[in-house]
Amino acid sequence: MESALRRRIPPSEVSPWLAATLIRHLVYWDLGDGPMRPVADALADGLVELLGPDAQWRANGCAAYREGRDGNVSWMPVTEATFDAAVVGIGGGHAVVVVAVGED
User: Fold this and answer.
1) Would you say 27 and 102 are in contact if contact means Cβ atoms under 8 Å apart?
2) Reduced DSSP (H G I as helix, E B as strand, rest coil) percent helix, strand, coil of the chain, to 5
3) Alpha-carbon distance 16 to 14, whole Å?
4) How far apart, in whole angstroms, are the C-alpha atoms of residue 26 and residue 65?
5) Where are the alpha helices (DSSP H) in 1-104?
6) Which DSSP state fits 85?
7) Closest C-alpha to 58, from 31, 32, 33, 88
8) How far apart are alpha carbons 24 and 45 in whole angstroms?
9) Rounded to an integer, what distance in angstroms lies between the CA atom of residue 76 and that of residue 67?
């Protein structure tokens, strides 16, 4: 698992990266996240706040989050699904694991 979660998420991208992983379809490339995006943003902001500013965040790649400077679709799988996106954060005495999967 450690080798798959090798991408460190920059602090400025953690919240939108989490939101994208929570809401974005991994098979279809439509970035129009629809009416649930504000809910995903709020959940992501809460998780970032829970873990605090010193938290370490990692991902298995950019399957869901495509807006960053390295925003492509490369990833290292962590499940047996055709596509997956994982974000893990550790800090403030808590751990957060968000995993999305998709099949085509």
Assistant:
1) yes
2) 30, 25, 45
3) 6
4) 10
5) 14-23, 37-51
6) E
7) 88
8) 16
9) 18
What pLDDT sits at residue 7? 92
CA gap 47, 4 in Å, rounded: 22
Q: Would you state the structure tokens that stand for residue 44, as one six-digit string?
A: 């992501």
The neighbour count for residue 100, using CB atoms within 10 Å, is 20
Tokens of 3: 């080798």
**In this structure, what token pair is assigned to residue 15?**
């919240």
Mutual angle of helices 14-23 and 37-51, in 10-degree steps: 130
Single-letter code of the amino acid located at 20: A
Could you read off the pLDDT tens digit of each residue along the chain, which spans 104 residues?
778 999 999 999 999 999 999 999 888 877 667 899 999 999 999 999 999 999 999 999 988 888 866 666 688 999 999 999 999 999 999 999 999 999 98
SS3 49: helix
Indicate the pTM of the whole model: 0.90
